[in-house]
Amino acid sequence: MIRVRPLALGGVIGPMTFVFTWAIAGASTSGYSPVDDAISRLAAVHAPTQTAMTIAFIVFGVGVIAFGLALRATQEGPAWIAAVATGASTIGVAATPLDALSSDALHGAFATLGYATLVSVPLLSARPLARSGRPGWARCAWILGGCAAGCLVASTIGPANGFWQRAGLLFGDVWIVARAVDLCIRTSATPEESTAEATG
Q1: What's the pLDDT score for residue 50?
Q2: How many helices (H) and strands (E) does the chain have?
Q3: DSSP state of 159
Q4: Among 44, 48, 178, which residue's Cα sits nearest to residue 111?
């Protein structure tokens, strides 16, 4: 359990780096619309922000995988698997940039899997948190997971795709950051307290 806290910090560093990078890169790129264009466009081949955005994808991926391992040690249920899958899928997105030869379909597959698993992280956490005596966190998990799912569906079927994509990812990222901070606080006291959630 000694490693739970540094692993959980990945759930803070990864999402915050990711959000900060796409916000700054999108705002500073001429001709790019955060409302209409996907985040992946910032990491497309020959995009001026490709290097920065690709690094942000990787930092997010590694950080969320670490967060998933922290969840595995402290919370029952499969939410940790969803977190690890989200991180791995994001690294896959970074490895298959848009406009590279024959990679767009694979990029789309990684992105879709990453969205689905990101939504699953809070939703799969809700029942374990309720069973461990944390109903407020369980309600937040349902709300943020539901909002993330709705926004990400909207990003695939309507106008303002970039806006809905960012909104959906933000809901998921807020959950990860908040839960990661919570894990850091709860595991900084004693080893006995750090196992409380896992045992219920």
Answers
A1: 95
A2: 8, 0
A3: S
A4: 44
The total number of structural domains in the chain stands at 1
pLDDT digits (tens, 9 = 90+) for 156-194: 887 999 999 999 999 999 999 999 999 999 887 544 444
Task: Answer whether residue 195 shows pLDDT above 60.
Answer: no
- The residues, any chain, with a CB within 8 Å of residue 153's CB and separated by 6 or more, are none
- Cβ-proximal residues to 97 (8 Å cutoff; 6+ apart), any chain: 40, 43, 44, 45, 50, 54, 103, 107
Angle at CA of residue 175, ends 51 and 76, nearest 5°: 115
Rounded distance between C-alpha atoms, residue 23 and residue 17, angstroms: 10
Q: Which residues contact 102 (CB under 8 A, 6 or more apart)?
A: none
Structure tokens at 88: 């791995």
Nearest CA-CA partner of 98 in 160, 45, 30: 45
Angle between helices 161-186 and 4-28 (to 10 degrees): 160
Q: Give the CA angle between residues 89, 176, 81 to the nearest 5°.
A: 45
> Would you give the DSSP letter of residue 143?
H
Amino acid (1-letter code) at residue 81 = I
Q: Which domain holds residue 12?
A: 4-199
Query: Which tokens hold the place of 167?
Result: 């909104």
